[in-house]
Amino acid sequence: MADLIELSSRIIDRGVADEPTNRITFELSEVADGLSIVEAFSHIWSVDSGDGLVLVDASGSLAGTRCIDAIRAWRTDRVHSIVYTHGHADHVGGSPAIFADAERRGHGVPDVIAHEAVHDRFARYRETAGWNLAINSRQFGGTKKDPDFMGVGEGRYLPDDVAVPTITHEAGMDLTVGDTHFELHHANGETDDHTWLWDPGRKAVYVGDLFMWNFPNAGNPQKVQRFAGDWATALRAMIAKGPELLLPAHGLPVAGADRVAMVLDMAASALEYLVRETVALMNEGASLDTVLHTVKLPDRFRDVPYLAPTYDEPEFVVRGIYRLYGGWWDGDPSTLHPAPKAALGAEVASLAGGAVALAQRALELVEAGELALAGHLVQMASDAEPDNRAVHEIRKEVFTARRAAATSLMAKGIYKSAINVSREALGE
């Protein structure tokens, strides 16, 4: 068993992430008496209640069997309950493996507890399976040739037999199993169906994705609305409980009352700052362009190992805040009823002396370090002449540079997808 507490404490106290913080080992570690974690893409926390196990989340469809096997090497008690922190596929997709294990052992069917909106999420995932497979392919670096990337095959995003919630709550509920009591609390944050748990006996807070050893995922450019302000409020509510253990679904557990309060406060303060500054500019009538290029996090939030912008990033969160309060229009009158991009690209290319000339100017901008401008120009050139091989050679080079400079997985994935489009156009 890895000493995860020692590892996280050292990283937080030194302020340097010199080892991975989001590990996928499928190994089980006992963090406290009767409390264990299986580290996967999304972890499973297991609590021995004395009257069966309570699992917090079920991991994803590709991880479920390995996770339950690891748990069974630790405890063979029946699984009394699974609590979903939210309905994302990587937190619920492993549930069929847990149910199959219960059936093999002759155990009863576990209760599945979640916020009531998880039902609506599952329905939406089934209605938009193709869209979710496509955006996850881009987000995690797949291609159009991987139609089931991050899915479960045959164009499905969720397993057909994913365990649906049998007990739901609207704002929260109490759960007592054996000698263990939990308070369940609803929060808007990364999702509108999030549940975080307070375990007063262990002074532990199970936070799901509300803390994940990355900058809070409140601005994902391809996903539905996130709620940065409500997210911060939930983190403040956790701090008020006085937790001594912070147990996330991604990343390392954190121990020590002062250390837990500090990391939660830093995450909450970063979100509160972005909300406050974005809304202040919106109240002055600022456009999205002005807001994006004005609101920047203070230096004290930079280089914090548990707030690294390696998955989401603050600029994307600002966009999400603007969308929440201001709708989809960005304040630019030319984008209200836009021309087709092909037409706009053709006009600009004509002014530049042709699509290839426009693309070559993008390369000059790359050399000058103006990567954002380069991206605009080469995309216009590609929009103007989508079959031009010379343009695609340059487009591939420009977005390779953009990907190399990006910090977040989301940005890198989207730029990789753009590179793949040009590679496919070139027959590579």
Explain this structure.
With 428 residues, this protein is of the alpha/beta class. It folds into 2 domains: 4-267, Metallo-beta-lactamase domain (Metallo-beta-lactamase, Chain A, 4-Layer Sandwich); 339-425, Serine Threonine Protein Phosphatase 5, Tetratricopeptide repeat (Alpha Horseshoe). It is 44% helix and 14% strand. It contains 15 helices and 13 strands. The strands form 2 sheets. The protein has a 7-stranded mixed beta sheet, with helices on one face. A 6-stranded mixed beta sheet has the order 8-9-10-11-12-13. Helix 11 (341-352) crosses helix 12 (355-367), helix 11 (341-352) crosses helix 13 (371-384) and helix 14 packs antiparallel against helix 15. The chain is globular and about 75 Å long. Residues 143-149 have low confidence and may be disordered.
Task: Give the topology, please.
Elements: H1 4-14, E1 28-32, E2 35-38, E3 44-48, E4 53-56, H2 64-72, E5 79-83, H3 89-92, H4 95-104, E6 111-115, H5 117-127, H6 129-139, E7 167-169, E8 172-177, E9 180-187, E10 194-199, E11 204-208, H7 228-240, E12 245-248, E13 254-255, H8 257-283, H9 288-292, H10 314-326, H11 341-352, H12 355-367, H13 371-384, H14 389-405, H15 409-425
Parallel strand pairs: 4-5, 5-6, 6-7, 11-12
Antiparallel strand pairs: 1-2, 2-3, 3-4, 8-9, 9-10, 10-11, 12-13
Helix pairs in contact: 7-8, 8-10, 11-12, 11-13, 12-13, 12-14, 13-14, 14-15
Tally of alpha and pi helices: 15
**Assembly form of the protein:** single chain
The N- and C-terminal alpha carbons lie at a distance of: 45 Å
CATH class of the largest domain equals Alpha Beta
Total number of domains: 2
Instruction: Specify the overall morphology.
Output: globular
- Name the CATH superfamily classification of the largest domain: Metallo-beta-lactamase domain
CATH-defined topology of the largest domain: Metallo-beta-lactamase, Chain A
Helix content: 40-55%
Strand order of the largest sheet: 1-2-3-4-5-6-7
The share of residues in extended strands comes to 5-15%
- Tell me the CATH architecture of the largest domain: 4-Layer Sandwich
Weakly predicted, low-confidence segments: 143-149
β-strand number: 13
